[in-house]
Amino acid sequence: MSAAAPANTHPPEPDEPFDVGSTDDSLERMIGLFRTLGDTYRVYVPARGSYTYVIHHPDDVKRVLVSNHRNYIKGIGLDRVKILLGKGLMTSEGEMWKRQRYMMQPFFHRRVVTRFAQLIGQANDRFIARWEQISRRGEPVNLTDEMSELTLQIVLRSIIGTDLDRLSAEAGGNPFEVVTKDTGRNLQFAFKFRSLTKLIAALIERRRGSGEKHFDFLAMLLAARDKDSGEPMPERDLIDEVLTLIVAGHETTASALNWTWYLISQHPEVESRLHAEIDAAAEVTAPSLADMESLAYTQQVINEALRLYPPGWLLSRRALEADELGGYAVPAGSNVLLPLYLLHRHPDFWTDPEAFRPERFAPDQEGTRPRFAFMPFAAGPRHCIGETMAMYEMLMHLYKLARHYRLRYVPDQPLELEAQINLRTRYPLHMKLERR
Ligand code: HEM
Q1: Which of 61, 93, 384 most suits a substitution to test ligand 1, by most atoms within 8 Å of the C-beta?
Q2: Which pLDDT score is estimated for 195?
Q3: Where in the chain is the domain with CATH 1.10.630.10?
Q4: Can you list the alpha helix ranges (DSSP code H) found in 68-116?
């Protein structure tokens, strides 16, 4: 469908204009539009007085994110994120982004990430002990909330380490809890969240004064130097990066685990294979990244969950200069949307796309589809900096919990998608933990 149309014609468009990508029902409508209009369409957005282009073909996705990435900056929806995250890695552009990414890339090197083994292991052990208590009382666990808490704990400890305990003791509770407890993602939340700025500034001052040695992202941010000027990161930028890592690293991973457990609970044959792989691996308290990456089937399960429910379900860009996508002319300044949710279920590239089949990710299957048909962590220079960390965290969580427990889904509420910035379940999932 991609390169057929001449560049002087317009792609198809729906009869009704709407603010595609920004309305609560965008995912639903986009599923329908992809079915009827195909790989490339555009929607007139009255509020903007312009067309937004929506693309689904891996070749076009590759063009926007990789081969012609210089022509694209982040697009609609990012304004809301900017209120929250200021000028952190997720939202910055140009020279500023390049400088920050260059400084922060080494933090996420495998050699560094594997040093978080104990931290990730201990966080899981603490949560598992708590769930054990709940399940002893015969109660189900609120999986959605627990995944959110667990991933928040891990990301916070990876950033501020043991200072989290001190700050929580001083504040009479985790001061960062607003990130999980406040599920509304509105302006009020944004302001509360920004007030954490002061807390981080105080922490930076304390660290600078104390001379203590820490191993965490904050220590790395404080030690980072610009490669040209040799200057440290300005404090404002540093705080924005801390907030960015908290948000980018927390809800995405929580949502991925939430969906993964749901899918496992619905597929006993997958669950059995997963158990067999994990049972055959040695039981280690703080397994290394390499240990976890040797769990080949567990990785396939996670990838398949990320295919069906990519937490970052919609990428958004804006074209600086005119371009051509799907054989159609895209004018300079156009917004372009890349719905990963639909790319990952594209019937031309996936057999039986709605089915949960982890074997799709077995090594002998990789060549059966284009490289750019699957990208839960995006691709190109702005791909997720935390991918290795996220995979490590998810693998270790499954390894630790599935070894001893089976999770049984309690269908007490309808299972509905909530596609906002991240793709989440609209209502929390409850699971009964059964000791294996
Ligand atoms: C399953 C978990 C995760 C998923 C699915 C995910 C997905 C993504 C995606 C799709 C992007 C690109 C967004 C865009 O281009 O508009 C991204 C960017 C980013 N992610 Fe992740 N992410 C995950 C976990 C993490 C973690 C654990 C961290 C850090 C601790 C992190 C930090 C970031 C940052 C800083 C960016 C911006 C990178 C840049 O523009 O240079 N992410 N992520």
Answers
A1: 384
A2: 78
A3: 87-312+376-435
A4: 78-85, 94-104, 110-113
- Of ligand 1's listed atoms, the one at least distance from the Cα of 92 is 40
Mean pLDDT by 10 residues, the chain (436 residues): 60 94 93 97 93 98 98 87 85 95 97 98 96 92 95 96 91 82 69 83 91 93 94 94 93 96 98 98 97 98 98 96 96 97 98 97 94 98 98 98 96 91 92 93
Closest of 62, 385, 131, 361 to residue 245, by C-alpha: 385
Residue 72: beta bridge partners? 319
Give yes or no for a contact between 155 and 179, defined as CB atoms under 8 angstroms apart: no
* Residues 206/210/214/216 CA torsion (nearest 10 deg): 20
Q: Please state the atom number of ligand 1 nearest to the C-alpha of residue 311.
A: 5
Ligand 1, pocket residues at CB < 6 Å: 89-90, 101, 155, 244-245, 248-249, 252-253, 256, 311-312, 315, 376-378, 382, 384-386, 389-390
- List the 430-435 sheet strands across, edge first: 141-142, 430-435, 405-410
For 224, residues 6+ apart whose C-beta sits below 8 A from its C-beta are 103, 104, 232, 233
- Which class is 87-312+376-435 in CATH? mainly alpha
Distance CA 142, CA 432 (A): 9
Q: How far is the CA of 200 from the centre of ligand 1 (A)?
A: 21
Ligand 1 centroid, distance to 140 Cα (angstroms): 31
Query: Which regions of 6-159 does DSSP assign to beta strands (E)?
Result: 40-45, 50-55, 72-74, 141-142
| The model's pTM | 0.96
Atom 3 (ligand 1) nearest CA: 252
Report the atom number in ligand 1 closest to the C-alpha of 316: 16
